[in-house]
Amino acid sequence: MNKTKTMGVQKKARLARKRTNRPGTPPGWLTEQPGSVPSRANCIAFDESGVFEQEFGNAHEIETIRQGKRNVWVNVDGLGDIELLRSIGDVFQLHPLALEDVVHVHQRPKLETYGDMIFFVARKPIGTETSETEQIGMFLGANFVVTFQEHPADDALEHVRNRIRKNAPRMLESTPDYLAYAVLDSIVDSYFPVLEVFGERLEELEDEVLTCVTDKTLSKIHLVKRDLLNLRRSVWPQRDALNAVIRDPSPFIKEETKVFLRDCYDHTIQIIDLVETYREIASGLIEVYLSTLSNRMNDVMRLLTVVSTIFIPLTFIVGLYGMNFDTTFPLNMPELKWQYGYPAVLLAMSVVGIGLWTLFRRRGWTNASVGSNMTETGTKNHAKHPQ
Predict the structure, then answer these.
(1) Residue 58: other Cβ atoms inside 10 A
(2) Which end of the chain, N or C, is less packed with Cβ atoms under 10 Å?
């Protein structure tokens, strides 16, 4: 997905977080939400004998498509057609409260059981350059899977459909619970490319903090921390929902499928570990940023102190010989009448200044980069290896 399209999807995702239902609205009431896009429905019916796929505009066509097939997968891209969503709910007898959660896309990932079906809410990243997520609702029944996606432009399940189209034996011979696993696995794995991008962003920020800090560096670090927090809010409840799928007995999920779901759960744990590690690194970068600014200020103050210290005796000499005494008195400074007095004072001032500079240099007080380089090396190692 290109950058322009990603920004458009982000805007729609932000609009979708605004609820339009007023307080007191009856439960299960479906209304079109801001930012929703027109719906496009696709149905795939399959078993060992083959695959039949068709797009439809009327949910009652599903019954014709699924005839003679053991499994059926209905996917809806876009939630702008409320009537189509209602008709699909009627065909599969989806609970109205679950359909309401499908339309209101601000839901946290969760697992709900409604009679003879399971309802799963998941969230996946929109593209790889942002932390914005979209909601995917999935219903699992005895012989069907129904999924609802917010944005057709970012179809996360296309490669799952391709596996069915290519007659992958594992997909065709399995029951709908394995298809549900494939959908969840696709959603979970979509986080890894996003985290790779965040890892690169953190490396770039680390180099920027340690080499060329600018006024925008701190805002970039805070932006990364905010994005990581958004990802954390999506992944943590998703882990709990997957754990509930594995833990709770269900007539629709076989034990052999739970083996694959446990692998999906492990991937979620890996994602959480990466998110937490990156958040710690981002927090460490803020400390490094503040330490770098403090070291720079110390270097400036050290240089100013050295310069001031050198000019203190020079100022004393100039002030001493700037006093206007009567040269006729014997106790006055005899060198005031000396013809080489002025060059001698300049030479003395030069010797004092150079001598002090040499002394400070031997002690390392003029080498401002030594202390900062040591600090930068230590903080860089700390950022790469957080405790």
Answers:
(1) 12
(2) C
Residue type at 260?
Answer: F
Separation CA 197–CA 191 (nearest Å): 10
User: Which of 171, 195, 210 is a domain's end point?
Assistant: 171
The model's pLDDT over 155-192, given as tens digits with 9 standing for 90+, comes to 778 888 888 888 777 888 888 999 999 999 999 999 99
CA 13 to chain centre: 16
Q: 85 and 79 in contact (C-beta within 8 Å)?
A: yes
Does residue 44 sit within a domain?
A: yes
Domain contains 162: yes
Q: How many CA atoms lie within 13 A of 135 on its CB side?
A: 24
Rounded distance, CA 165 to CA 204, Å? 41
Q: Domain count of the chain?
A: 2
- For 206-218, how does the pLDDT look when each residue is reduced to its tens digit (9 = 90+)? 888 888 777 788 8
DSSP secondary structure letter of residue 150: S
Name the helix (H) or strand (E) containing 52. strand 50-56
Task: List C-alpha distances in Å: 281 to 132, 228, 275.
Answer: 21, 11, 10
pLDDT, tens digit (0-9, with 9 covering 90-100), for 328-360 = 777 677 777 777 777 888 888 888 888 888 887
Over residues 100-122, the pLDDT tens digits come to: 888 888 888 999 988 888 999 99
How far is Cα 366 from Cα 33, in angstroms, rounded to an integer?
A: 65
Nearest CA among 126, 72, 122 for reference residue 261: 122
Measured CA angle at 309 (ends 307, 315), to 5 deg: 95
C-alpha 12: how far from its chain's center? 18
- Rounded to 5 degrees, φ, ψ at 350 are -65, -40
DSSP label of 215: T
Question: Can you give the residue range of the structural domain that contains 377?
Answer: 293-384
Cross-strand bridge partners of residue 76: 41, 148
Are the beta carbons of 252 and 176 closer than 8 angstroms?
yes
Q: How far is CA 114 from the centre of its chain?
A: 34
Please identify which residue in the block is written with the tokens 């970039």: 220
